[in-house]
Write a structure and sequence with these properties.
The protein has 494 residues and is of the alpha/beta class. It has a domain of 280 residues: Rossmann fold (3-Layer(aba) Sandwich). The chain has 17 helices and 11 strands. The strands form 2 sheets. A 9-stranded mixed beta sheet has the order 1-2-3-5-4-6-7-10-11, with helices on both faces. Helix 6 packs across helix 10.
């Protein structure tokens, strides 16, 4: 799962220069092809290497089709050595989604490092790569014109567009069964090999830890330690249970408002009133104002996307009581703001993952049954249901059940989760960590999805963990459990 803020970082900086197709090599032989980095990237910040990993789409000689994975390596500015005098291994970064990207953000990262040289790639080399099927790789399974969020396709037209798009890729010879976590784990092993790394560290956020878990399962010999930020574990259900998780996040946020006298006075009994509002949206399209103009019309799917996106986002969470008041009053501008941008995924890559390793282990009936009776949860059901329709039409083969099972490992792992997270809530993290014998779990009060980059405290914690994964992390800088959430109100309401 990936949020708007992460999408803006990972997808919005289209700075990668696409290279020419690489000639096929001998089957099953991974190749790293160097290429020039974009000329508009800042120089002198870090030593940078750009290129592409070229591998078989299907390993084992099933096809001679070759694919490319875009890669950027940022060399460490001050390589750290452990107690034995050994330099730390590189950090492989895993983006979220599925359907995100990292290499397009490399230029932005270098610009940020000009101002804040301590942000990353200090102790260890940093390897950014776009997981197969997305970003600047070839193929990149994008579906232009189709909208898709973590709440699913927001309309029947988007559902049908996804089906048509995926079938087009299949007709072009793309084997969608080869775009998933288990195969990416092999890509990571191959990339480490061609770059000359015997060991690597893993660092990912959101769906990134889902891929990290596959590397730990299938290629444990190359992994020294792992950091998982707002993690989505393999055993999580993508659709089933998500409506209840979103509803729980809304209740948590509104409960924090009710616990503060000023917020409670501004928004009395807001949870009950919003449940009544949700029932109205479930009954049919709602018409209201946007920008002071009447006649704006939105559906329950638009409210669904709003709830998912807002409860992921730090500022969205802080505005939620005020935004819900607007919606109840007929001002639908908060809905319109989210509806304006819902194309931040590489949609084909996203669905290839879901149809292989997530939805075959779930069902539409369980989705509906779990949300029944909770109007806020029921808002999420129509759009999430469409995901099953897409997968049924495309017909990928289900993954091996091990891909949906909890991981058992001794790899030292730091889990950092947000207290407020509708997609990757703390109970998922706490349950997953039980299989990691050398794990540490940190839940950050009032934090939202994408915790580590949210504060100097958590960034320092992760950096120190990788310096010595055997030591307990220092939690003294974290906010206390009773820290009030700082809500944002409209100036007019103040």
């Amino acid at each position: 799962m990936i949020t708007r803020s992460l999408a803006a970082l990972f997808l919005g900086l289209g700075l990668w220069g696409g290279g020419a197709a690489v000639a096929p090599a001998r089957a099953a032989e991974p190749v790293f092809a160097d290429s020039p980095c974009p000329t508009d990237w800042p120089s002198g910040v870090r030593e940078v290497r750009c290129g592409r990993l070229v591998v078989d789409e299907a390993r084992g000689g099933a096809s001679d089709r070759r694919i490319q994975v875009a890669v950027v390596v940022l060399k460490a500015s001050q390589p750290f050595k452990d107690a034995s005098g050994q330099a730390l291994p590189p950090v492989f970064m895993f983006h979220g989604g599925p359907g995100g990207a990292l290499t397009p953000a490399a230029g932005g990262i270098l610009n940020a490092l000009k101002q804040r040289p301590d942000l990353m790639a200090v102790d260890q080399d940093l390897v950014l790569f776009d997981q197969r099927g997305g970003g600047q790789g070839e193929p990149s399974l994008d579906c232009p014109g189709v909208q898709l969020t973590d709440a699913g396709p927001p309309s029947d037209a988007d559902r049908d567009g996804l089906i048509a798009c995926l079938k087009t890729y299949q007709a072009q010879g793309v084997d969608l069964n080869q775009y998933n976590a288990a195969v990416i784990a092999d890509d990571v092993k191959d990339l480490a090999q061609v770059l000359g790394y015997a060991k690597i560290d893993l660092w990912g956020g959101s769906y990134g830890p889902r891929i990290e878990a596959a590397v730990i399962t299938h290629q444990p010999q190359i992994v020294r330690a792992a950091v998982m930020d707002s993690p989505w574990p393999p055993e999580g259900n993508w659709a089933v249970g998500t409506p209840e998780q979103v509803s729980a996040a809304v209740k948590l946020i509104l409960g924090k408002c009710a616990a503060q006298a000023d917020c409670r006075a501004r928004h009395p009994d807001l949870q009950t009133r919003f449940e009544a509002e949700a029932r109205k949206w479930l009954a049919g399209p709602v018409v209201g104002q946007v920008g002071g103009k009447d006649g704006a019309r939105f559906t329950v799917d638009d409210l669904s996307a709003f709830l998912m996106e807002t409860t992921y986002d730090h500022d969205g969470v802080r505005r939620l009581p005020a935004d819900i008041e607007k919606i109840i009053a007929g001002d639908l501008s908060p809905i319109a703001e989210v509806a304006a941008e819902r194309t931040y995924y590489t949609e084909g890559q996203h669905m290839a993952h879901l149809c292989k390793e997530e939805l075959p282990f779930e069902s539409k009936a369980r989705l509906v049954a779990g949300a029944a009776g909770d109007p806020v949860a029921e808002v999420l059901v129509p759009s999430l249901s469409r995901l099953f329709d897409v997968c049924d039409a495309v017909g990928e083969s289900p993954a091996d059940p091990i891909e949906n099972a909890p991981v058992t490992t001794n790899v030292p792992t730091l889990f950092v989760a947000a207290e407020i997270d509708p997609g990757c809530p703390p109970p998922l993290t706490e349950a997953a960590a039980k299989g990691y014998a050398n794990s540490q779990v940190v839940i950050v009060t009032n934090a939202t999805h994408g915790v580590i980059n949210g504060s100097l405290c958590t960034r320092r914690m992760a950096r120190e963990f990788l310096r010595d994964p055997s030591k307990p992390v220092d939690r003294s800088c974290l906010p206390s459990a009773d820290t009030p959430l700082d809500f944002i109100e409209d100036e007019a309401a103040g």
